[in-house]
């Protein structure tokens, strides 16, 4: 009976960079967007692995109108959230990754991007080596650091309660959470993607969501309660 009560009391919390209105959230970091101006006539296509890179590009395109042409270029993306952001900004989504890990995404892209000039917009620090895999396959990729993340100092009173299921949206979200709180052995960690999953410490109970869509990932988290 006690075990059943624990299962039912598990709260699912999204740990990342924004609060969501459809689920409990813990914001552990903030994004700083870089100022940059690119000549998109040099490129045939774009790569985005996070919606923050799309937001950074859109913000700079408003400042530098000559960058508006990015919307005409085909975008190759990881994750439904990234796809939705590209479309919301009026861009073209040509391809969505079948696999959310950088190495596998690179393999998917190698034949598709052969002969193209590609701009990869990304965070300053990434755990994926996507561009290196593409360079090894002789894909002409230019990298633009579009933003960086910073941790937020949180009070210990904000620590999730025991037995919580924590859905981490990025490797840095797990890093910043760990900087704020000691890991409770009764937590369950769930990663939104393989790169985030591989950032977890080996001694914690963890799963990788089979879904990149955050609402579907929440549904997966709910199955861990029973």
TrEMBL record:
User: What InterPro entries is this protein classified in?
Assistant: 4pyrrol_syn_uPrphyn_synt_sf (IPR036108), 4pyrrol_synth_uPrphyn_synth (IPR003754), UROS/Hem4 (IPR039793)
Q: Which domain of life is it from?
A: Bacteria
Name the chemical reaction catalysed here.
hydroxymethylbilane = uroporphyrinogen III + H2O
Q: What class of enzyme is it?
A: lyase
GO terms (molecular function) for this protein are: uroporphyrinogen-III synthase activity
Q: Name one GO biological process term.
A: protoporphyrinogen IX biosynthetic process
- Which pathway? Porphyrin-containing compound metabolism; protoporphyrin-IX biosynthesis; coproporphyrinogen-III from 5-aminolevulinate: step 3/4
Residue ranges of domain Tetrapyrrole biosynthesis uroporphyrinogen III synthase in the record: 38-203
Query: What does the UniProt keyword field contain?
Result: Lyase, Porphyrin biosynthesis
Keyword check for Transcription: no
User: What Enzyme Commission number does this protein have?
Assistant: 4.2.1.75
The protein's role, per its UniProt record:
Catalyzes cyclization of the linear tetrapyrrole, hydroxymethylbilane, to the macrocyclic uroporphyrinogen III.
Q: Which family does it belong to?
A: Belongs to the uroporphyrinogen-III synthase family.
The protein here is known as Uroporphyrinogen-III synthase
Question: What is the native source organism of this protein?
Answer: Helicobacter enhydrae
